[in-house]
Every structure is written in C-alpha cells, then in structure tokens.
Amino acid sequence: xxxxxxxxxxxxQLVSRLGIEIHSLSLLDRALTHASIAAESHQVVRxxxxxxxxxxxxxGLAVAHHLFERxxxxxxxxxxxxxxxxxNRGSVAAVAAALGIAPAVRLGKGEELSGxxxxxxxxxxxxxxxxGALYLDCGWEAAxxxxxxxxxxxxTADALTxxxxxxxxxxxNVCQAKRIALPRFVVTRSEGPDHCKxxxxxxxxxxxxxxxxxxxxxxxxxxxxxxxxxxxxGERMD
Length: 238
Prior knowledge:
- It is a single chain.
- By secondary structure, the protein is mainly alpha-helical.
- α2 packs antiparallel against α7 (120-138) and α7 (120-138) runs antiparallel to α8 (140-150).
- It is built from 11 helices and 3 strands, in the order ααααααααααβββα.
- It has a 3-stranded antiparallel sheet with strand order 1-2-3, covered by helices on one side.
- A hairpin with a 2-residue loop joins β2 and β3.
- The chain folds into 2 domains: 5-161, Orthogonal Bundle (Ribonuclease iii, N-terminal Endonuclease Domain, Chain A), CATH 1.10.1520; 166-236, Double Stranded RNA Binding Domain (2-Layer Sandwich), CATH 3.30.160.20.
C-alpha cells in the first residue's frame, strides 16, 4: 500500500528521532499497523503480527548475544533469567513508551476508543515488530545495535546481576544455617589497566579455600567465587 504524504512525513520524523536508518517506510508502516484497522479499510491492510513474531526472536537473540559477551561464564539458567528480565512484556512496553512510538501506531476506531494506544501488550508488540522491520531492512548488526541502545538501562550488568543472582548472600545464609563462621573473601590478583581491570577472588570458609572467581569488578569476582563454592563445595560445609 502506498503511503500518503502526512503518513510518510510522520514515519520519517519517527525514524529521525529514533536515530535509525530504514529504507522501506512501507515496512515500518506495517510494523506500526494494528489488525483492528483491517476491518475498517476497503484495501488490503497488512498488520504487524508476523513482523512482531520475527522481531521477538531478533530481540531475544540480541539480548542473549549482549549478555554472553558482557557477562561471561554464566550458566544457561542464569542467562535465561537475565534475558527474561529484559524481554518481558512490561520491560519492552516501558521502552516503547519511552521512545514515544505510540502516536505513530495505526489503530481501528474501536481499538482507539477502548484505549488500545496505551495498552502495554500493544506497545510491546509494536516495538518488537519495529525491530523485525529494521532487521529485514537493514540487517542483523543494525537491529542488534538498536536493541542494545534502547535497552541500555535494562542491560547494565549491575542491574541484572543484583536482581537475578546473589550467590554471596546465599553462601552467607548457608553458613548461618549451619552455624559456622561467615565466608571470607580475599582478592588474590588484580591485573590490567583501570578501564579494563580483572580481579580474582578466593572465598574461605573455616580457613579453607572453597571457591575462586574472576570478574571485571571485585563484586563480580566475589559472586563468581561464591557461586563456585555453592556448586562444588556445598557438601563439605557440614
């Protein structure tokens, strides 16, 4: 379907504001078109649903790629929990709202009157469809870079690791439950320039080293050491 001048101008303004390059405005228009508009149109209208399916997969892969590179050596379960915190409906809808894509979404009158433009699920779907359109039009690298940019706050290592796993606290709780002294964390190595430092930490329980971990911060290294202690040495803390 050909775009009229006001719609084309609206989409060009959105593209400029989002800081992306997308060559097919028709594809972007489809990503921002809800199925409810088809019932009110005499023309064939393609909605965002299939693009949303594709964009959901691209979003998940982009987040997984970022986590794998920036927060290395986690278990599949840990990665899955971290990814889930980023790509859940509420998180995606919040990013969509912050980007201000709602005004550009095409809705049927009924959906508009029922407040569809404010619904979290609709906003999340449209953002995922937009990511799918960007992937088709500009390729993987453009789509990945866009995801990392707009989900930057949700993808910070501190935010994810603090909320998803805290092995240090769990190890301390185990010691308290067994009525033994709390674990002691010792930095055994610190190397590299200030902007790219690596720390190595050992955790001791009752004077015995029970785990060792590395990380780009002392906190991360301590968490990794505690994780090793919990996974491999838990039975020895009787």
